[in-house]
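To whoever is covering the structure queue this week,

Two jobs came back overnight. Logging them here so there's a record in the thread.

Job A:
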Amino acid sequence: MEKDLLELQTLIDVHFEQRKKEEEELVALKERIERRRAERAQQQRCRTEKERERQAKMAEERMRKEEEEAKKRAEDDAKKKKVLSNMGAHFGGYLVKAELKRGKRQTGREMKLRILSERKKPLNIDNMGEDKLREKAQELSDWIQQLESEKFDLMEKMKMQKYEINVLYNRISHAQKFRKGAGKGRVGGRWK
């Protein structure tokens, strides 16, 4: 009987020790989770702040470029008007059309360059430590992932639009087939 009691007592002690270890592990796990949450929140705040700064810089740059483009356009318009007033009507009309075509191409090229310059970020990694480099690599990886997801979304949207265009084109051609036959004596699909 004492042997059973002793064995039972040891089992109870082992159980409580095991339970104590599990509780300590659980507390440690909760602390790690809280630490990770705090780190993630801090990282998210840093990312958000950096993104806000980047957006502000982009907005300033965009406004500056738009102002420059507006000035350039105004100067070009003034030059065109001056040239048009000095030339004859027919030859001047031809030159205006040529200038407009060339201008559209330039603005398209300029738009592409502007978009690329907005998206291209300077990479200053000369004086960075290992942790900063890892953080920069993670930031660039996140940015690439965001761009890839946007690209995928746009490609899917383009596919859907192409599909809708084809469907509408088929509907139009189908409707035109029946419209052509309506005035030639066809009624209900039978000749009379």
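Job B:
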Amino acid sequence: MNLLHFVGYFATGLAFCFMVLSLACGLYYLAELVEEYTVYTKKVIKSMTIFVVALHVLLCIFDRLPVLNLLFSIFCHGVYSLNLATFPFIRLTSVPFLSSCVLVFVDHFIWFKYFTRHYRPFMDIASFFGVCVWLIPFTYFISLSANDNALPMM
């Protein structure tokens, strides 16, 4: 090995560190926005959930994804939406929150199992997981910090 390989490894490590730092800064900024605009955030989460559920229906029609898996994912998004009833006050011991935590992993496992048995290009799978499986739970995860700074309501 020559010196250029070590420079390449060092640059790759440095780029990875910058990427992680950028992601952390972006998440911090999103959490600040959620804390500042809780009413608007609730509307955005509701609209995103409607979009994702509509996308599930379209995937059933056009891409012929399994109906039972899609119905389960729609059910999961319905359970996630139960957390909006008390938003931004999400109690970590409430039934909707605990159910959401379990259903995120079950939904991920069901779709992972499906895509390991049925070939699709990696970009399709990554996009599906990012938008249809992880987007809404990740949004709720970011919005958990809004609970700490919200004023109590009567």
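Note for Job B: The chain has seven helices and no strands.

Please reply-all if you pick these up so we don't duplicate work.
Q.
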